[in-house]
Amino acid sequence: LGLFRTAEKMGFQWLKIINKDPRLDGMDDLSGTEIPLHYIFKLASHAIHLVVFYERSGNYLWHGPLRLKRHMDRKFVPFWKLHFGRYPGAYEKPELLLVSIDDLKVQIPKNPSSFLEEMSQSRFLECRYREARAFIQLYPDDASLDAVEFRKRAKSLLHLAALTLDSLGVKFWLSSGTCLGWYRQCNVIPHSKDVDLGVFIRDYKADIIPAFQKAGLPLKHKFGKVEDSLELSFQGEDDVKLDIFFFYEEDDHIWNGGTQAKSGKKFKYFFPKFTLCWTEFVELKVRVPCETLQYIEANYGPDWKIPVKMWDWKSSPSNVQYNGVWPVDEWDDVIQIY
Asked: What is the pTM of this model?
């Protein structure tokens, strides 16, 4: 309050933008508590845009979108010029440095360039809690001990995978069933039996396999090669496996490959082009395709809302296409099972 009084004394007018607190808007609660997201101070033709960051449970910082309520003065400032905070965003907690600028003591990120780089790819998608609640009313959650245990193991496997890939600087996102679980029910699908991640092949690093092995996740199989249809699978504890699918970018689509070990048959899964956003899933800040619905519909078809227990990766997906057979003389290289 002192800030606003001082600002008014100096001749500033100000605008406060509030919205629902997503930290309270979980599966159990639609509390509707509102929090300040943005403040805009105006003096003559100058504006100061203050974006409020909040700490979230995945140990990251979040800011909300700049959205005007109906009654607000749309001409208060030229809003189209305010790029920062137009969409919700997620950031790592920066280390701050106290510096003196024009005799003013202010804090800045210790590593400004990495903060600015984050800014360009900070867009954040909230989990669809309302739809997830509706889904669980239609299809009550599996509360069996097996399901609870699997979710716990899947969560710790995902956290370990994130730690490992982050340490290598490899960008990844939730893919396949893990992405569907996030989008449809804000949780791991209990009958899925694995954790699925996507990585663009341009981000592939040879250290991935040794890094996972060092983290206690041995390689279970390696299909394909860097030039074509690469896919890695690591063995987590108690039968939960981690599948990493590598995605190849073409002019008008993106695809990943599949291989049937016993026959050497190849399959191709087509996706419309997508970009990456952040979300929070099982207390982890993690990427998902921003165009999530198109991504999921490509993979699971229009009936993705209906749970399917019997899923065949070779024939069930809507976007699968037979892609020939690996030449037999390459099998030792492109079909490795441990």
From this structure: 0.94
